[in-house]
Amino acid sequence: MADGAQALPLTLLPMAVQLLDAVLAIEVRAYPFPWSRANFVDSIAAGHLTHCLVAPDGELLAYQVAMAGFEEWHLLNVTVAPAHQGRGLATQLLHRLIDHARGTGAECLWLEVRPSNARARRLYAHLGFAQVGVRRGYYPDGRGQREDALVLRLFLQAGAAA
Is there a contact between 20 and 37 (Cβ–Cβ < 8 Å)? Predict the structure, then answer.
């Protein structure tokens, strides 16, 4: 757990429609271009792996959405409530996802991240993700332009990189 990590016993729940108001409240505070309710509903309906970290008092602190592929997983969204950032919650969720993906026999985990998101990039590098590409103009940037996405990959199995 990172310095300042959440010390409370947290509950890990699958994302459900009943949690979407709390999820969306975090999403709109965390991002200038948040996912819509429909994005989350579609992810739940598609059977994507979803995790929510909930405090003992019931407050939703963080969540993630990941999609399985052929011998791989793709992280679609990981978000921590702004008031709870810097406490190791994203790291907890990502470790759970990595363990789950390894348990399915997946060879790698993929994600995209904004080049401007230095905090997330540091976390991903710390976890062993490496940049393998760029998706040009992937994200809206708020000035009527688009920001590239860095494509990152983490090998999950010994020898997967060979």
Answer: yes
Cα 80 from Cα 2, distance rounded (Å): 14
Per the CB < 8 A criterion, the answer to whether 65 and 50 are in contact is yes
Query: Is the alpha carbon torsion for 46, 108, 28, 92 positive or negative?
Result: positive
pLDDT tens digits for 67-113? 999 999 999 999 999 999 999 999 999 999 999 999 999 999 999 99
Q: Is 31 considered catalytic here?
A: no
Q: Which of 71, 72, 112, 138 is catalytic?
A: 112
pTM for the whole structure? 0.90
CB hemisphere CA count around 78 (13 angstroms):
26
Domains detected in the chain = 11-155 (3.40.630.30)
- The upper half-sphere exposure of residue 74, i.e. CA atoms within 13 Å in the direction of its Cβ, equals 9
* Catalytic entry in 124, 138, 139, 147: 124
Which residue, 74, 62, 66, is CA-closest to 29? 62
Residues 6+ apart with CB under 8 A from 20: 37, 40, 41
